[in-house]
Description:
mainly alpha; two-stranded antiparallel sheet; disordered N terminus
Amino acid sequence: MDNQNFNINYANQPGLAKPLERTFVANVFSWMSAALAITAITSYVFGTDASYISYLINVGEDGRVGMTALGWIVTFAPIGFVLLMSLGFQRLSSTALIALFLVYSVIMGMSLSFIFLVYTQASIYSTFAISAGMFGAMALVGYTTNTDLTKFGSIMMMGLVGIIIASLINLFVHSEGMNYIISILGVLIFTGLTAYDVQKIKRIGEGVEYGTEATSKLSIMGALNLYLDFINLFLFLLRLFGNRRN
Length: 246
């Protein structure tokens, strides 16, 4: 039997759109969860094993701690990966995007391993749990609300630009007060962006066509957005409530 006869446009079939939307959202969260698991494991391995962390930092004869070449690479490479995936979305295949996303999650884990040198393990684990709870709650809000969050999302994006600029300024000012305000705003912004991004992903799922290359690519990019929301929410919460090592 010719499979072309079953090339249904699911977006125009009310009875089929809902299951497809749920499948799409589930795929997005599956990829995001897989990437977070890879990041968490990599971060723990590098952050708690001296033989691994030595690849990222070195201690001079005078006792000063410095970054190795690999340490600098894993610090700045994640930005390049996000830009490559975002700007290359049209040209890259879904397989290439998946590979980039998984490699990116490993590099992010290596980069985040530095938090084990600054904060106690107990505060890292508790903050991660709090972040997961907040993220899950806002994801549920974004998925179930009937309110259009488009304008809200635009405000959050403007706020994100604001804290990026403020953070760059604070690199030179070194103000503890500004750092505290930036952290609070960061938590609020990424909490809000979580709800906005989940609603956006849900709406994308309502209009995609099942089994296409484009749908697969959109699910990876949706997972990347949620992954970034979670990681940034976690880091800002850690800056606010994390217990530093003595």
